[in-house]
Amino acid sequence: MTKKLSAQQKGSLLAFVAVILITPDSLFIRLSHIDTWGLLFYRGAIPFLIVLLGLLLIYKMTFFKLLLSMGYPGIFYTVTFAITNITFIISIQNTNVANTLVMIALAPMISAVLGALFLKENPDKKTWITIFVTFLAAVYIFYDSIQLGNFYGDIFGFITATGLAIGAVVVRSAKDRNLVPSALIGKLCVAIFALFFVKNFELIETDIFIVPLMCILCVAIPFVLVTIAPRFITAAEVNLFFLLETIIGPVWVWLIIKEKPSPETIQGGIIIVLAIAIHSYMSLKKNTK
Questions:
Q1: Angle 47-164-248 (CA atoms, 0-180°, nearest 5)?
Q2: What is the pLDDT of residues 166-219, one digit of tens each?
Q3: Could you tell me the maximum CA-CA distance found in the chain, to the nearest angstrom?
Q4: Domain boundaries, the chain
Q5: Are residues 246 and 269 in contact, defined by beta-carbon separation less than 8 angstroms?
Q6: For the whole model, what pTM was predicted?
Q7: Are the C-beta atoms of 200 and 38 separated by less than 8 Å?
Q8: What is the 3-state secondary structure (H, E, C) of 181-243?
């Protein structure tokens, strides 16, 4: 007889599977031949349709009530979610994949700063130390990128991290509301925005397989899993799993298309990942006690 999974095991499994599915996302973006706006259109439209269908099956007519009850937090979250989806693609296409993912790893720390400013959730001493260490590591990577001409992509990576952090603060400020429909509308906004700039919708060569696979496997399914995971485990635990993307994502790109990160990116990335991992572990250990 199969043993039932505990809430902790369910949440951890959902978060782990979601992150593993996300890890090849950057590689698929690199392998695709479609232009930036065409890629953004499909990454907005396909997940929107799939997740909308899923939510309608789960919530039925209640979904529209959720949609109308989002209020201002829902609007803010829709905007930040849409912007981060756009800036992520721009970053990936203008710098090394490792640089983008390392910048995104800063999101939890930026979130802590914004939480202190707007929600009066003052970080403890170890959090401020982690913020300082990760900031110095990011500056180190930025300096290297200026020399290599990747600064533009890194800036958009940092904007993505900031957008993710703002989104997290918005969600925390509206704990009594279900903002899942906001993210869904954010995907629709991405598709509509990209629509004005797309020159060609045609998927040629391997794009016929890569783009739909990427949108379903790396975007739509993880989006649903990550939405469900926090019901069973804390947001901090979910964020800890996302450090795997920072580590595994560049490895996929390195192995398949030989895009090697600079030594400075590897060094700075190791410092950022270790700092956040140690901080997350200490926080979870403290909460468990």
A1: 75
A2: 888 887 777 777 777 888 899 999 999 999 998 888 888 889 999 999 999 998
A3: 60
A4: 7-288
A5: yes
A6: 0.81
A7: yes
A8: HHHHHHHHHHHHHHHCCCCCCCCCCCHHHHHHHHHHHHHHHHHHHHHHHHHCCCHHHHHHHHH
